[in-house]
Specification:
Elements: E1 3-7, H1 12-24, E2 27-32, H2 39-42, E3 51-55, E4 68-71, H3 78-81, H4 85-106, E5 109-115, H5 142-162, E6 166-171, E7 174-175, H6 186-196, E8 200-203, E9 209-211, E10 213-214, H7 215-227, E11 237-239, E12 244-246, H8 247-258, E13 264-267, H9 282-288, H10 296-310
Parallel strand pairs: 1-2, 1-4, 2-3, 4-5, 5-6, 6-11, 7-10, 8-13
Antiparallel strand pairs: 9-12
Helix pairs in contact: 1-7, 4-5, 6-8, 8-10
The structure holds nicotinamide-adenine-dinucleotide (NAD) and uridine-5'-diphosphate (UDP).
Uridine-5'-diphosphate binds next to α6 and β8.
C-alpha cells in the first residue's frame, strides 16, 4: 500500500486514476483547485476512508508526505487553458516546481502528465518521442504547449541535479466519461451537440486528424509507467491510441452511433490548430508492455450514456 498524491484528481483523467488507486487500497490524496474539475467526479470516492480531497492551487506551495505523486493539474481543453493563459503557464511552471520540490523533500517518485502538444503542429508523422516538435512560442496555444515543454525540462533538471525519481508520459487525445460537457474539446462537443440535436461544429474543413484513446486504456498506461520496475526508464513515453481520424469522420461516427439528426456545420479553424496527430507507441509497447485495447467506436458507445445522464436526457 502506498500513499499517493494526485494533483488534478477531480478532473476528467484524474478522477479515473483516483478511483483505480482507491480501489487498489492505496491512501490517495487528491489535490485540486476545481478550476475545471468537479466534486461530482469524485463524489463516490469521498465515501472511502483511504481517499482525501484537498482544495488547493498548486501554483501555491504544497507539502505532504507521499511515496508517489501524479502531477495532472492543468486545464487541458483549449478554451479553458486560454481563459487565463498566464495562470496556465504558472500552473505548468510554478506548480510543477512546487510538486518537484515536494518529491525531492519526501523522496517520492513523481509522474508528469505531459502532452502530444509538445510536438506542436508536427512536421513528422506519426510522432515518435525523439521528434522535437514544431511549436509556436507566441501563439494562443503557447501557454499550454510551452508550459508543458518547460515542465518536462524541469522534470529532467530535477532528475539530473537532485536525483528525483521521475516518469514523464506524453498523453494523446483522451476521452471518456467524466469529461465536462462544457469542456470545449471535440469529443464532448460533438456528443453533446448530437444528443441535443444541435448543429455539429466542425472547425475548418474537418480534414485535420487526431488519435483518440479511451480513458481506461490511458490510465492503465499511466499506472504501468508509475510502477515500472525499470528504474532508469524515465520516458518521455507516448501514450495514445494510434487509430487516426479526421474531425469529419469523428462527427459522422457520433451522428451514426447516437442516431442523431444533427447537421454538420463548419466554423473557423482556431489559430495554430495542429493539422495531424498520431502517436508512435513502440516505446510504450517495449518498456511497459502496453497498448490500447478499446477502438474509437467502442469507446464512444461507452461514453455517450454518461453524457445522456449528465444532460438529463
Ligand atoms: P481536466 O481539465 O479535466 O483536469 C485538470 C484538473 O486539474 C482539473 O480538475 C482542474 O481543476 C485541475 N487544475 C487545473 N489547474 C490547477 C492548479 N493550478 N492547481 C490545482 N489543480 C488544478 O483535464 P484532463 O483531460 O483530465 O487532463 C489531465 C492532465 O492530462 C492535464 O495535465 C493535461 O494537460 C493532460 N493531458 C490530457 C489530455 C487529454 O486528452 N485529456 C491530453 C494530453 C495531456
Ligand atoms: N474541433 C472541432 N469542433 C469542436 C471542437 C474542436 O472541429 O467543436 C477540432 C479542433 O479544431 C481540433 C480537433 O477538433 O482540430 C481537436 O480539438 P480538441 O480541442 O479536442 O483537442 P486538441 O486540439 O487540443 O487536440
Amino acid at each position: 500500500m502506498s500513499r499517493i498524491v494526485v494533483t488534478g484528481g477531480a478532473g476528467f483523467i484524474g478522477s479515473h486514476l483516483c478511483k483505480k488507486l482507491v480501489e487498489n487500497g492505496d491512501d490517495v490524496v487528491c489535490v485540486d483547485s476545481l478550476f475545471t474539475g468537479s466534486m461530482d467526479n469524485i463524489g463516490e470516492l469521498l465515501e472511502y476512508d483511504n481517499f482525501k480531497f484537498v482544495e488547493h492551487d498548486i501554483v501555491d506551495p504544497y507539502f505532504d508526505e507521499a511515496d508517489q505523486i501524479y502531477n495532472l493539474a492543468c486545464p487541458a481543453s483549449p478554451p479553458h487553458y486560454q481563459y487565463n493563459p498566464i495562470h496556465t503557464s504558472k500552473t505548468s511552471v510554478m506548480g510543477t516546481i512546487n510538486m518537484l520540490g515536494m518529491a525531492r523533500k519526501c523522496g517520492a517518485r513523481i509522474l508528469q502528465s505531459s502532452t502530444s502538444e509538445v510536438y506542436g503542429d508536427p512536421q513528422v508523422h506519426p510522432q515518435p518521442e525523439e521528434y522535437r516538435g514544431n511549436v509556436n512560442p507566441i501563439g494562443i496555444r503557447s501557454c499550454y504547449d510551452e508550459g508543458k515543454r518547460m515542465a518536462e525540462t524541469l522534470f529532467f533538471d530535477y532528475h539530473r541535479e537532485h536525483g528525483v525519481d521521475i516518469k514523464v508520459i506524453r498523453i494523446f487525445n483522451t476521452y471518456g466519461p467524466n469529461m465536462n460537457p462544457d469542456d470545449g474539446r471535440v469529443v464532448s462537443n460533438f456528443i453533446v451537440q448530437a444528443l441535443k440535436g444541435e448543429d455539429i461544429t466542425v472547425y475548418g474543413d474537418g480534414n485535420q486528424t487526431r488519435s483518440f484513446c479511451y480513458v481506461s486504456d490511458l490510465v492503465e498506461g499511466m499506472y504501468r509507467m508509475m510502477n515500472t520496475s525499470k528504474k532508469g526508464f524515465t520516458g518521455p513515453v507516448n501514450l495514445g491510441n494510434p487509430g487516426e481520424f479526421t474531425m469529419l469522420e469523428l462527427a459522422q461516427k457520433v451522428i451514426d452511433i447516437t442516431g442523431s439528426d444533427s447537421r454538420i456545420v463548419h466554423m473557423s479553424l482556431p489559430a495554430d490548430d495542429p493539422t495531424q496527430r498520431k502517436p508512435v507507441i513502440k516505446l510504450a509497447k517495449k518498456e511497459l508492455d502496453w497498448e490500447p485495447t478499446i477502438p474509437l467506436d467502442e469507446g464512444l458507445k461507452m461514453t455517450i450514456p454518461y453524457f445522456k445522464e449528465k444532460l438529463g436526457l
